[in-house]
């Protein structure tokens, strides 16, 4: 059911004007946005744009379809595809880093980014 999962998540992206689920380029962006999630609080999981829905073990971002860079590091032992059903990237706040969890997970917040305009 990879397509259904992707559609479910895409619906969450559209309400944000010009924004999309967060795509981490490196650990610097990871640390900055993790701190942001921590300051927002209120949930142990914050969903990002990374997923391996299309091909197990191949992590890409929803919006750009770019691979999740090797420069972005996960929690030790993650992503582990626990139960063969973890295809979406989250910040796991109580563990302090990136984890993969089932895409249909209910109790979750999402982080989006909006590209800055570069008008002259
Ligand atoms: Ca980004
Ligand atoms: Ca997976
Ligand atoms: Ca996991």
From TrEMBL:
Gene3D superfamilies: Mannose-Binding Protein A, subunit A (3.10.100.10). SUPFAM superfamilies: C-type lectin-like. Pfam families: Lectin_C (PF00059). The keyword Disulfide bond applies. InterPro entries: C-type_lectin-like (IPR001304), C-type_lectin-like/link_sf (IPR016186), C-type_lectin_CS (IPR018378), CLec_Tetranectin-domain (IPR051663), CTDL_fold (IPR016187). It comes from the Eukaryota. Residues 18-103 form the C-type lectin domain. The keyword Secreted does not apply. GO terms for molecular function: carbohydrate binding. Keywords: Disulfide bond, Lectin. This is C-type lectin 37Da. It comes from Elysia marginata.
């Amino acid at each position: 059911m990879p397509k259904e999962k992707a559609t479910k998540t895409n619906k969450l992206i559209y309400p944000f004007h010009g924004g999309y689920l967060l795509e981490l380029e490196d650990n610097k962006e990871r640390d900055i946005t993790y701190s942001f999630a921590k300051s927002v609080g209120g949930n142990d999981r914050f969903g990002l744009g990374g997923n391996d829905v299309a091909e197990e073990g191949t992590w890409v971002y929803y919006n750009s379809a770019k691979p999740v860079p090797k420069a972005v590091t996960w929690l030790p032992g993650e992503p582990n595809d626990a139960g063969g059903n973890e295809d979406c990237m989250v910040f796991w706040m109580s563990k302090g880093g990136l984890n993969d969890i089932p895409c249909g997970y209910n109790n979750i917040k999402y982080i989006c980014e909006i590209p800055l305009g570069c008008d002259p």
